[in-house]
Amino acid sequence: MRFVIVTGMSGAGKTQAMRSLEDLGYFCVDNLPPTLIPKFAEACYQTEGKIDKIAVVVDIRGRKFFDDLFASLKVLKEHGYNDYEMLFLEATDEVLVKRYKESRRKHPLAPDGRILNGITIEKKKLKEVREKANYIIDTTKLSNKELNEEIITILGEQGQIETKLFVNVLSFGFKYGIPVDADLVFDVRFLPNPYYIAELKPYSGKDIPVREYVLSKDETKIFIDKLNDMLHFLLPNYKKEGKRQLIIAIGCTGGRHRSVAIANKIHEVLENSGYTVTIDHRDINEDVSRGAGKL
């Protein structure tokens, strides 16, 4: 089991570090009192491998409890849990002050005084902790993306899931609202509508008659070709910038015919191109269940 203790200066990026560790599959606990570390480690070890990567944040927010850190680490070793690692995050005083001013938060060691005074006190309290850290990351000039890459290098494993971009293709009906979590939205209401063909109306875009009707149109073929080109340009660049999930929404009026057929086709194209992609048809049964009219 990998047990990582994340600590360091307030404002140095511990919250972002924990997000990165969560993406790496770590079970994360923030602001755990050091006195509870041995009990927590014991509980995790007793899961028999079900929880095999743990990260806990321990810092001066724990106030008096933080002074118990070394005693707790000693207890860990006495119980045989001596393979823990410590990650220490820091930054220059100037950058820490700037981050506090931007967030408008008070320093925990100087709630009513100057931020710099709190940083100075904290640095002294953490001096011994820093000396015992396995890894030290200076986040002064790091973006969130760069910090994430540092953590992956130190605490990740090659080929882990976090390096992938997960794509979700979603069909929907504009009459029921644009999906609030969509990253890219495409409107296919310009295509001929199967709703107005009596023999196609009862079916959805998942059914062969509607699918063949929609995909056989010249407008559809041109649209899919252009969208395919755009996505194959965008997706690698989204991945390069650290995006982990992309939701592509395809909408028609009711979300039952055109959008479903197009979404299924895009899903097929991306899957055949090697992307990790899922499909969801949000409104495919809405008009059927509501007995509504125009699709």
From TrEMBL:
ATP binds at residues 8-15. It comes from the Bacteria. Keywords: ATP-binding, GTP-binding, Nucleotide-binding. InterPro entries: P-loop_NTPase (IPR027417), RapZ-like (IPR005337), RapZ-like_N (IPR053930), RapZ_C (IPR053931). Residues 167-284 form the RapZ C-terminal domain. SUPFAM superfamilies: P-loop containing nucleoside triphosphate hydrolases. GTP binds at residues 59-62. One of its GO terms (molecular function) is ATP binding. Residues 1-156 form the RapZ-like N-terminal domain. This is RNase adapter RapZ. It comes from Clostridium senegalense.
